[in-house]
Structure formats: structure tokens, C-alpha cells
Fold:
Amino acid sequence: MAEARIDKWMWAVRIFKTRTIAAEACKKGRITINGSLVKAARMIKPGDVIQVKKPPITYSFKVLQPIEKRVGAKLVSEMMENVTTPDQYELLGNEQNQRVRRPCTWNRTSDQERSSGTGRIYNSRVYG
Structure:
């Protein structure tokens, strides 16, 4: 088998969890092969470089062996080579640092509600 569909290959080497998600990524223009946008039915061959945009990173993979049947995680390294540049992974690290964890306030009673007796006090069975 010298060629395989791009959506099946990305599913088989575990880039996407399902083939449907892989096909949708092709439809949305997030997949390029050697720099050109592709449809889900595009055939790939060994040596092709596939770029997958999963914001904020653009992953790059080199096809070593085109397959259409899903393989175990240990065999994935024989099917593709990850050629993503290190600066792309730095973008991922920066994105995680920018997220701010906010305290959950939607299910809490305030001090004023607790003292007035009109708020939601779950231990006393008062629901207001």
C-alpha cells in the first residue's frame, strides 16, 4: 500500500481521536500537505510533510508509511516522524501561562446572604 487517504492516516496514527474529526479539520482548512490545503480524500505518500493546525500550535509530521488501519501507540513512530519546530511548543507553554484561574462564585453564598437568612443555606434546608 503506497498511498492512503489523509483523514484515515491521521486517525490511524492517532493525530485525531476519530476519523470524522480528521475529516472536519480538512474541511475547515486546518490541514496542509507540502504547503497546500487538502480535502479529506487526498492521497498521501511517503515523504509528504503534513501540517496540522491545532491552535495555538501548528504541528508538522513527515509520513514514513501510509496506512489506513489504526495501529497501537507504540507503532506510531514507525509510521510518522514529528518534525514540529521547538518554537511551536514554546507557544503552547506561553498559552498555558496566560490562563488565569478565577474563583468559582456562581454557587457560593455571600456573608450577607448567610447572616440575613434569605440566601441559599444548604445545611438548614433554606433555599431562597
Remarks:
- Helices lie at 6-12, 19-27, 76-79, 86-98, 111-116.
- The radius of gyration is 24 Å.
- The longest helix spans residues 86-98.
